Amino acid sequence: MSTSCCTPGHEPRGLPVIAPPRSPTPRHKHMIRLPGGTFLMGAEDAEGYRADGEGPIRTVELHPFQIEATTVTNAQFAAFAKATGYTTEAERFGFSFVFEGFLTEENARASEIVHAAPWWRATPGAFWKRPEGPDSSITSRQNHPVVHVSWHDARAYCDWSGTRLPTEAEWEYAARGGLEQRRFPWGDELTPGGRHMCNVWQGDFPHVNTGEDGHLGTAPVKSYRPNGYGLYNTVGNVWEWCADWFSPTFHRTAPRDNPTGPPDGSARVMRGGSHMCHASYCNRYRVAARSSNTPDSSAGNIGFRVAAGGPPENKHPTTHHKPQHANPSSHHRGSCTW
Ligand SMILES: [Ca+2]
Ligand SMILES: [Ca+2]
Ligand SMILES: [Cu+2]
């Protein structure tokens, strides 16, 4: 079991990944065009996590690229699943990770506790369409982020839709919304003037969520104000898979011109934090915060956002890597598993 900040994961299980054909109909036609250029990536503030590799603050250069204003919704993922017959890894494994507070008694009984993070359950039958296990549904959540999608599932959606996952640098540049070195996409304060700007956790984690920000679980993808570039819910709501392998140190010495992360690894980068993040608990909904999970793991607070364009080597969706057979001892383990 590999468990990182707020999201449980499992060791790679090496299922073959089936790349779906490209959609004949263009998808994501109205992405936000960003000019690129240079920006200051990372943070070194006292509230950050040095061990995650948030720092050092460094100048990173990016080509122009496009990124979606929102994460991929249930409705969008449903169109993909319907067109291709794609089955997610959660479906093929027969379970995904669900927050205990969302489970019916029956589904809770059928679930296995995640000891490293006991508010998580490995719930049989949970997948994107049944986010809290059997008998749950997304009927009233068509415009919510799709969740319970692994990194491989996200990549399959990208291949079909003619898009790609953003690199971690692109994600952070886009999430900063043109502000320099602020803690959040809108500034330094979590709730400026008492106003909620994102979907995180209020109350006593993991037992009391007051839902003061309006949402106990996921929120519709266009909730709250967009940032200066027009992106919604980059921080909070759901963790977002990025293209890169995760390393807490690689970027210290790596090239800073359109960085694409380490050449290999065992976990993929996730950014932005989720509806389960809380100031007293993990504080990883800051715009510079980082986390990761194994590429076939899924949970009820992990989704993704698509991008396109960028440097020539990023322009076409790349073929899938072979299934990972990573050495478990090399796994990144988040520091946030209490
Ligand atoms: Ca909330
Ligand atoms: Ca997010
Ligand atoms: Cu968190």
Q: Could you give the order of strands across the largest sheet?
A: 12-11-10-13
Radius of gyration: 18 Å
Give the percentage of residues in beta strands. Answer: 15-25%
The H-and-E topology, N to C, reads as EEEEEEHHEHEEHHEEEEE
The helicity comes to: 10-25%
| Helix/sheet category | alpha+beta
- Note poorly predicted spans: 316-338
So how many helices?
Answer: 5
Estimate the global geometry from the Cα principal axes. Answer: globular
What is the tally of beta strands?
14
CATH superfamily of the domain at 32-73 and 140-317: paralog of FGE (formylglycine-generating enzyme)
CATH topology-level name of the domain at 32-73 and 140-317: paralog of FGE (formylglycine-generating enzyme)
Mean pLDDT: 91
Report what the structure shows.
- With 338 residues, this protein is of the alpha+beta class.
- The chain has a domain at 32-73 and 140-317: paralog of FGE (formylglycine-generating enzyme).
- It contains five helices and 14 strands.
- It has helices at 74-84, 89-93, 105-110, 151-161, 168-176, and strands spanning 2-4, 7-9, 32-34, 37-41, 58-62, 65-67, 95-99, 112-113, 120-124, 239-245, 268-271, 290-293, 302-304, 307-309.
- A four-stranded mixed sheet has the order 12-11-10-13, with helices on one face.
- The longest helix is centred in the N-terminal third of the chain and has 11 residues, at 74-84.
- The protein is globular and about 50 Å long.
- The two termini are 14 Å apart.
- Residues 316-338 have low confidence and may be disordered.
- The structure holds calcium ion (2 copies) and copper (II) ion.
- Copper (II) ion is lined by residues 5-6, 273, 277, 282, 284.
- Copper (II) ion binds next to loops.
